[in-house]
Specification:
The protein is an all-alpha fold and 442 residues long. It is built from 19 helices and 2 strands. Helix 9 packs parallel to helix 17.
């Protein structure tokens, strides 16, 4: 039986741990943003209308792009759909809604500096691209911080920092998500929030209902997060049945406005981009399954070999009987997502760098790596085996960082998609080990 003084000491120690954790989290956020923002490559392509939509929402209160008609014409209508005579971004508008508050803060400041964001976006000036880059870098850095906080729930602060560093520098967070306002970045952000809530709910059940909002937000950002939304939703419904109504209610806070906007704009519950008919079993489905994992120019495990640590972590968790319901939900989400994006006929993701379409689930991959980091921090009876494991993981980390650094700092690698032939016309090039895109320009 503990005394009051012991209880007080434990409470003080707990408060001190929280203060240290959040102090380190702030440092992780700042360092990640600095690296992302200073990396020069900007790849605004499919994302080109996201910031324009946010500015339209902030200035005019709508998400149509009528004020950008001349720019749309010059782009031959790329990435735009016409509904009732009005142009809209074909890609999910959730990203635009997410950054609108940031745009509302930045817009008057930019105007004082002589920058008219709407005008510069119409003219495709560099200032618009720089603002888009900064917003994407902030979203990606916030996700790195959340991955750190997920790790801090189960690891030491140093272990959580290693997990965050691997995510920040050794995945497409650096080479894709932080380059422009692709929808994969915000999708990963909200999945990381949902994962953190699931872990926090073990000791603080009151936060659990907000997972409903985070999961719906992830879906609004990008429909390919649906496997994770369903898997984590089912897990929560099973483990916290008494809070299911609150979970659904918090999810409805975002789902209802989303549906209302869609009905008003698209006359449908879901926008065209979200319709399931865009994926299915196609003639290259088997190739897509393999290509999304191991092809030299699109393979997830080729571009981020450090994810071997996630596979090892899954094995460790099973062997140590630490494979929980949350672990099962995470694995199910990753596998179903891999199958789903492989069902997209353009499974290589067009002219992008590496496995862009596989990035949504990256916070879940990071979660699976936690048992590996925990095991490596423990004393081993076989010292040589531990050293070999550490060296192997370090090599995988170094290779991952080097590959994604190329995508963030050297535009040469993107020219691979159009030379010697256009990747969309010759997708078999993703298998050419003599010409992997990450070595272009060396």
């Amino acid at each position: 039986m503990t005394t009051k003084s012991e209880d007080l000491a434990a409470e003080v120690q707990k408060i001190g741990w929280y203060h240290r954790t959040w102090a380190v989290a702030a440092l992780v956020l700042f360092a990640s943003f600095l690296v992302y923002a200073l990396s020069p490559v900007v790849t605004s392509d499919d994302s080109r209308w996201a910031l324009a939509t946010a500015v339209s929402l902030e200035r005019h209160g709508d998400i149509d792009l009528t004020e950008y008609a001349p720019t749309i014409a010059r782009a031959h209508g790329y990435g735009v759909q016409i509904v009732d005579g009005r142009p809209y971004d074909f890609f999910p508008y959730g990203t635009a809604v997410l950054v609108t508050p940031l745009v509302a803060v930045a817009d008057p400041i930019l105007q004082v500096a002589g920058i008219n964001l709407e005008r510069d976006l119409r003219d495709r000036k560099s200032s618009g691209l720089l603002v888009e880059h900064a917003l994407a870098a902030f979203i990606a850095a916030a996700t790195v911080m959340l991955v750190f906080l997920v790790g801090a729930e189960l690891l030491s602060l140093f272990g959580a920092m290693l997990l965050a560093a691997g995510y920040a520098l050794g995945t497409s967070s650096w080479s894709i998500a932080s380059r422009a306002l692709w929808s994969v970045g915000p999708a990963a952000l909200f999945l990381a929030i949902a994962l953190l809530i699931a872990l926090k709910a073990r000791t603080w059940p009151r936060v659990l209902p907000w997972m409903g909002t985070a999961l719906i937000a992830a879906y609004v950002m990008r429909p390919t997060t649906l496997p994770a939304v369903l898997a984590l939703g089912v897990y929560t419904a099973i483990t916290h049945r008494n809070r299911l109504a609150a979970l659904v209610g918090c999810g409805a806070l975002l789902a209802v406005p989303f549906i209302v906007v869609n009905l008003n704009v698209y006359h449908s519950v879901l926008p065209p981009y979200f319709r399931a008919g865009r994926i299915g079993i196609h003639s290259a489905f088997g190739e897509a399954l393999l290509g999304n994992l191991v092809s030299p120019s699109r393979g997830l495990l080729v571009f981020s070999p450090l994810l071997v640590g996630s596979v090892v972590g899954l094995v460790v968790a099973i062997r140590r009987r630490q494979f929980t319901g949350l672990s099962a939900a995470v694995v199910a989400a990753i596998v179903v997502h891999w199958v789903a994006v492989s069902g997209f006929p353009q499974w290589w993701g067009g002219a992008s760098y590496g496995p862009r379409l596989m990035f949504d689930m990256m916070p879940l991959w990071a979660f699976l790596a936690i048992p590996t980091l925990r095991a490596l921090s423990e004393p081993w009876t076989n010292i040589l085996r531990r050293q070999v494991a550490l060296v192997a993981l370090s090599v995988c980390m170094a290779v991952s960082v080097a590959i994604h650094a190329r995508g963030a700092v050297d535009i040469s690698v993107y020219k691979w998609s159009i030379s010697p032939t256009d990747i969309d016309r010759d997708p078999g090039r993703v298998w050419d080990w003599r010409d992997p895109m990450f070595v272009r320009g060396l």
